[in-house]
Known about the structure:
Strand content of chain B: 15-25%
Strand order of the largest sheet of chain A: 1-4
Oligomer: heterodimer
Number of domains of chain A: 2
Number of strands of chain A: 4
Structural class of chain B: alpha+beta
Distance between the termini of chain A: 35 Å
CATH topology of the largest domain in chain B: SH3 type barrels
Shape of chain B: globular
Distance between the termini of chain B: 29 Å
Number of domains of chain B: 2
Structural class of chain A: mainly alpha
Order of helices and strands of chain B: HHHHHHEEEHEHEE
Amino acid sequence: MTHSHDQDHNHDHGSELSEAALRVRALETILTQKGYIDPAALDVIIETYETKIGPRNGARVVAKAWTDLDYKARLMTDATSAIAELGYSGRQGEHMRVVENTPELHNLVVCTLCSCYPWPVLGLPPVWYKSTPYRSRAVLDPRGVLKDFGVELPVTTKIRVWDSTAEMRYLVLPMRPEGSHNLSEDALAHLVTRDSMIGTGLPLREGRAR
Amino acid sequence: MNGAQDLGGMMGFGPVIPEPETPVFHAEWQKRALAITLACGALGQWPGDRGRYVRETLPPIEYLTSSYYEIWTKALLKLLLAEAMITPEEWSAGRAVSPAQPTKRPTLSAERVAPLLAAGTPYHRAPITPATFKVGDKVRTSTSHPTTHTRLPRYARGKTGVIIETHGVFVFPDSLAHGNGEDPQWCYGVRFEGIELWGPESDPNLDIVIDLFEPYLTPVS
Lengths: 210, 221
């Protein structure tokens, strides 16, 4: 059986383990034998980020902000507390800031120096967010990056890029799609994509919900 | 340090490849890499900023040709060896041959994962001195190239911007990463015009906001 070992898409089958997979396996073996880590805790961490903490959390925040103006006001002035109202807080979301898209201003979030990302509301970052193409180009040529995502904004729309270089973590509040005024908060949440909360995408239109 | 991590404004890496929201991981080893990194961090032997610094010290060619979870695990191994939690003999043997060192916090148990993640690590601190700058002030960034950890990217050094937000006082990564204490500093959101950072060819309808600590900034009259 032959297959390529793309660096970000390693599929480790049987004995054909990549160097990366072997390194992690050796680390886990030694650290477990020495009692520094408990494999049961590792399983809980993985399950948490696969099933509990992900971009559906952020979608709920956005949908609530779209439907509840008081909530939106709290979100824009103290995002950490407003997000915690919905039960999302903690690691990599200790200091949250929400930035709102308007017809005049489109916000885009990047971490050029590492991979800072608001975990409680978006989960773990996708590969591209941590990759050299995105981190290098988001600050220099954000319209070019948006084209990679199939998004083209009017040249009159200002683009503001937020480079998360310190402890603030950013969530984009996208514009509510036109024609969605009859939708419930739950239905609206289905229109909110992860990428629309980073600024590399736009929310889906009604009828194209996830 | 001017390592390969400081990517803002570089060219030639090709297009960004979008991906769907799931799967979260693309290989089994990536799951373990994430979990091991978090579980080792929970032992309290090093702050997150030191972890970031160690990742930056990977040789540029290695950094740029490693996936992010590889960068994490390579840096984790360096930290474990530096702390003598794993010996070089153990790493070449692939198994434990010596007892564990004492750690600041106990081994992370399954029960403690949820409370640990929920607590996070807040980095804000009570102000000791008043903020030097206020919203609307014009500032110029440092032109220094420290060999140590810094959160002032190269593309924003020696540039003029405007304070648009005062975030408060936070632990200073440049100090904490090197074991020199928290040295809390005021942190500001500073807005730079695209043209200031990228020259006259810049998109005229672009600005960039960077969160910067007070020691990076000097006033512009």
